[in-house]
Amino acid sequence: MRVSTLRKFTAATLALSVGAFVLATSPVTAAPALQPASLPEAPAGSLSCYPTGLGPNVSLGDPKVVLGVTGEYDQAACRALFGAVLKLRQQQDGSLPKVKRSTASFVGINGAYFATKDDVYGWNDANTPRKLPGTVNASCAPAGAWDAIQARAVAKSPGYDPSKPSKFVVNQCSNGTYMSELMYGSRGVFTGKQKKKLLRTVPSTVKVKGVEKQVLTWTRGYLLLKYGNKCADCGVPGSADFRAVIDAGSSGTRLLLYKVKYKPNGYPKVTWKKTFEGDDDGIDDYVNPDVSQRPGTGNLNKDVIDPLIEAATTTYLSKRKPQRKSNIKVDLLATAGMREAQAKWGKSAVKKMYSGIRTNLNNASTPFNQQLKGISAGSKFSAGKVQTINGDTQEGVWTWVNLNDYYCNYFKDPNGKKKKGCRGAKGGVLGVLEVGGASTQVAFPVRAKKAKPRSYVHQVTLNHRNLRVYNKTFLGLGMDSARRTMLGQ
């Protein structure tokens, strides 16, 4: 999922009333950029999901529409709209799980965190997510709310231009309201007595010695399970090799570079080295058989894949040379956006695109392979897995494994030191609510004698620890998809 992996939804504190906020900062008069008249208008009624005072000609950014009328935030009306989205999606994909089955308390990540984090695009409720509905209402409903939100963005983010408001600022009230409904609404995850089960939301990155480090990503959970169990291409036990995983999410693509020390039937050392962000809105935009309708040049490898691998080669591997004759496997694993693309364009279109990616990765004459060969004699990149992953049996389970490994140290040493994010964990593990751009995943440990994949109960085995974990993906309940549905897209 991209989080939209969600760098798009970082959050800003407005725990006080908007009026108090405006007094506390220098007033900024927003001058929204007017959009072409050809931009369609959002459906009537959607004004209730946008801050009071938002101009009718300000683009909502995603989707590309204008509100058409001045924003007039009404939390009850907006939650009703998102409640209808939840109802529609659950009629198609089944109800959200009953979390009373979980043997653990929960944390929220990605969209859940970015909607509650103290930053430019949200609020300071990460440790008290139950306060989010009240905070959103106090920030978005009063007269002058839009100008106050713009002022907040200027104060928090030097260089922010209020005449060209970011789509993340424009949609922050809508996103916060959706998260409130998803978490605590009548059709949400934590209803009634289960509200206390959501302990907090936690970040996917942390600063270590001033350097931003990626810590929560399903890509690491994937590698932990792969290299902690027997596999065909794992290499010599105890050997260490670079591995690259391309997370092809619904709202963007990124390459994560790891150093992996293989240990079958044990605990492998999987060390994140660096993340390289693509400048795209998701590889699913390239599935369209009509090349003229694709972004950029229309060539996925040229626009997205090659630049990511070249960046990893020239900025990192050139300074930390791999061993001679290294074979750096590149896995490209796509998430919910590609599931939606396959439903729209068909399996053959997706299969054709993946075939082109594999051919390109295995091509010794590509610039990135030539660059790597020049850095480390005989070394090459080659295609590993190139596929759309299953949200139920793979992505959500991998997310759960990595989170509990990082925060709770569960798989390496459950009796060892734990991080603050693990506070309140029952049995040493946590459940996870992950909200991406196109889908939402809910994963938690359950009491079950055996795995039942048809009931979304999966077996997790790593370093002699065996658990049964419920996980299900709900396509269309990601933050971007839910908002588009609410806006009639």
Count of strand segments: 13
Radius of gyration: 23 Å
Number of self-contained structural domains:
1
> How much strand?
15-25%
Classify the secondary structure makeup into a structural class.
Answer: alpha/beta
Count of DSSP H/I helices: 14
Q: Which consecutive residue ranges, at least 5 long each, have pLDDT under 50?
A: 1-37
Series of secondary-structure elements, N-terminal to C-terminal:
HHEHHHHHEEEHEEEHEHHHEHEEEEH
- Give the % helix: 25-40%
Q: Strand order of the main beta sheet, please?
A: 2-1-10-11-13-12
Question: Sheet with the most strands?
Answer: 6 strands, mixed
What report would you give on this structure?
By secondary structure, this protein is of the alpha/beta class. It has one domain. The protein contains 14 helices and 13 strands. The protein has helices at 18-24, 75-93, 111-114, 132-140, 145-156, 167-170, 172-184, 218-227, 300-317, 336-345, 347-361, 367-375, 391-408, 479-486, and strands at 106-110, 198-201, 205-208, 211-214, 240-248, 253-261, 269-277, 327-334, 380-388, 431-435, 439-445, 457-462, 465-475. The protein has a 6-stranded mixed sheet with strand order 2-1-10-11-13-12, sandwiched between helices. A 5-stranded mixed sheet has the order 7-6-5-8-9. A two-stranded antiparallel sheet has the order 3-4. A hairpin with a 7-residue loop joins strand 6 and strand 7. The radius of gyration is 23 Å and the shape is globular. It starts with 17 loop residues before the first helix and ends with a helix.
